[in-house]
Design a protein that fits this description.
This protein folds into three domains: 90 residues, conserved putative lor/sdh protein from methanococcus maripaludis s2 fold (Beta Barrel); 89 residues, Efflux pump adaptor protein, beta barrel domain (Elongation Factor Tu (Ef-tu), domain 3); 103 residues, OB fold (Dihydrolipoamide Acetyltransferase, E2P) (Beta Barrel). By secondary structure, it is α+β, with helices and mostly antiparallel strands. 18% of the residues lie in helices and 45% in strands. It is built from five helices and 21 strands. The protein has a six-stranded antiparallel β-barrel with strand order 2-11-14-13-12-15. A four-stranded antiparallel beta sheet has the order 3-10-8-5, with no helix packed on it. The N terminus is likely disordered.
Amino acid sequence: MKGPFPLLAVVALALALVLPGCGGPSSGGDEAGEAGSGPVVTVRAGTVSVQRFADTVIATGQWRSSGDVVIAAPFACTVESLQPHVGDTVAQGQRLGWLVTRESRSALRGAELLREQARTPTESTEAGRALALARRDLVRVPLVSPRAGIVTRRAAEVGAEVNEGTELITLTPREALVCETHVPAAMASRVRVGQQATLREDGASEIHRARVQRVLPSVSAVDQSRLVWLAPEGFSPPPALDRFVTATTEVGPPRNALAVPDSAVIEDDLTSATQVAVIGADGTANWTTVTLGAHAEGRRELVSPALPAGSRVIVVGQRGLPDHTRVKVTR
C-alpha cells in the first residue's frame, strides 16, 4: 500500500515545475514584442497640418478644333497663287490667292499652242490675235477668306487643277479653339458649364485662364473618362493644335483641410493603395492606409482617416520599413 504514494508525489512535483512555464515567459515575450523591441531606425519626419485647398478637378488634355472652316474652290479652276501656309493667321476678307477658271485657262493654253505650231506669217498673225484675245478674256478670281482664323491645313498648291468644291485651305477660327480634357468619371459630375479653369501647356510655365464651354455626353474610348471642352480667354499667341495641356477646373470654393507632405505618401504599385507611416506615442512606425484629395504647395489633402493635426509622419526612410518598427527622428 505504500508503493504508489511516492510515485504520485514525483508526478505532482513534475507538473508543478512544468505548468508555470506554459504561460509566464511567453506572455512576457509578447509584451516585449508589442513594446517594439528590436533595432531603432533613424528617419526624418513631417507633420499633419491644416492646409487651404482649392476645390478643383485636375485633368489632362489637348488643343482641338470644335469647328473648322473649309475654303473650297467655287468652280473648276487652276490655282494661280496661294499665299497662306499652315500656322499662318488670316483675317476675315483677306485675299488668300488667285484662281483662274478652267474654261479661260484652256482657251489661253489653246492659243499658246496655236502660236507655237504656226508655220506661215499668216498663221503667226492669226495665232497672235487669238493669244491676245485669250489673255484679255482670262478670268482671274480672288480667293477670299470668309472668316478670321489659323490655317490648319493646306490641301492644294500653285498650278493645281481642281474641280468645283475641292478643298483648298482649312481654317480654325480663334473661337473654335478648345482644350479637350479627359476628366475622370468619378469627378465629371462636379464639372459644370461656365466654371473657371487654368491651363498650362507641357513644357511651359505660363498659366492661362479658361472657362468650361461644354461637357460632352461621350466618353473616351481609351480610358472611359468624360470629355470636357475648355475655351481659352485671351490666349496669345494662338496655341498649337494637339499640344498637351494640364487643366485645373475650379468646382467649388476653397476649404481648409488636413494635409500630409507629398514625400510621406507611399503608393503600392500593385493595388494603387496609398499609405503613410505614422509615428506613434511609443516611438514606433505604424503604416496607415489613407485616402488623399487635392494637391497644393507640396502637400496632399488627407480625406481619411482624420489624423490629429500635429501627428508626425515619416518623410525620409520609410520605404521598406516594417510595421511597428521603433524609429528615431532626426533633422
